[in-house]
Task: inverse folding
């Protein structure tokens, strides 16, 4: 019978609670008395559950308090779902909302006012992927952009870590970043370049944080295929606490020297 209460809207739960407090609704609870506050089909199961609570010794005030708590929980759940957008990239499927990763990412870049944080494992076709961001950095000279990217040591490459970082920085600037305008700050995890394979760690995160307000977390790398063609799943969150937490996490890794500057 608990399912009956769980199926009620927050407004219906609060209406029931108010009627219990005022004495307009009292035990014994019948479908007809409860039916004054909600649709008839659900009134029977709800009245049965209210009666069960009464039979266990719960007073109307305690029942009303419980209903208000349930209403608040339901409202919070609705609020969370309203702030989350599902982003699906891949072949269109009937009944599933389809929104390309590239559209979401470009939109975040174009609307950024103060800060952009980008974390990615792989970057290819970056001049196309980051075109909107480079344009926005020109439009807003004060926009601070930080990127956290993975630098790999390929099998058999015995070059020094400094040389690998130099090559990466040159390749990013000449091949992956749109020509013209200023460059973002780029950081990397030095553990990824350890000569000892057992000590290596990859920067595998894939997310965008805009203005410490909007967060996009995705399976997609920053490549043309991942942004537009692959089957990818992501979540766009409109949450200042989450955005600030992520920004603090990456910022602290930089300030403590865990991540180093490549550009």
Result:
């Amino acid at each position: 019978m608990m399912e009956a209460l769980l199926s009620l809207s927050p407004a219906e739960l609060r209406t029931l609670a108010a009627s219990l407090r005022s004495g307009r609704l009292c035990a014994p609870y019948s479908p007809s008395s409860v039916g004054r506050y909600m649709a008839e089909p659900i009134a029977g199961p709800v009245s049965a559950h209210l009666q069960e609570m009464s039979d266990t010794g719960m007073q109307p005030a305690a029942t009303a308090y419980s209903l208000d708590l349930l209403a608040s929980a339901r409202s919070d759940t609705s609020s969370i779902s309203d702030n989350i957008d599902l982003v699906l990239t891949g072949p269109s499927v009937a009944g599933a909302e389809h929104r390309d990763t590239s559209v979401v990412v470009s939109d975040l870049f174009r609307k950024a006012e103060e800060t952009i944080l980008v974390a990615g494992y792989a970057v290819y076709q970056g001049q196309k992927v980051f075109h909107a961001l480079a344009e926005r950095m020109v439009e807003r000279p004060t926009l601070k952009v930080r990127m956290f990217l993975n630098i790999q040591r390929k099998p058999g490459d015995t070059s020094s870590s400094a040389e690998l970082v130099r090559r990466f920085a040159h390749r990013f600037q000449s091949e992956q970043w749109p020509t013209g305008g200023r460059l973002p700050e780029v950081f990397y995890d030095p553990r990824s370049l350890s000569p000892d394979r057992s000590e290596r760690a990859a920067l595998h995160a894939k997310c965008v944080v805009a203005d410490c307000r909007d967060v996009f977390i995705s399976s997609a790398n920053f490549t043309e295929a991942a942004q537009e063609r692959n089957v990818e799943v992501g979540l766009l969150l409109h949450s200042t606490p989450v955005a600030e937490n992520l920004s603090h996490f990456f910022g602290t890794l930089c300030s403590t020297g865990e991540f180093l500057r490549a550009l």
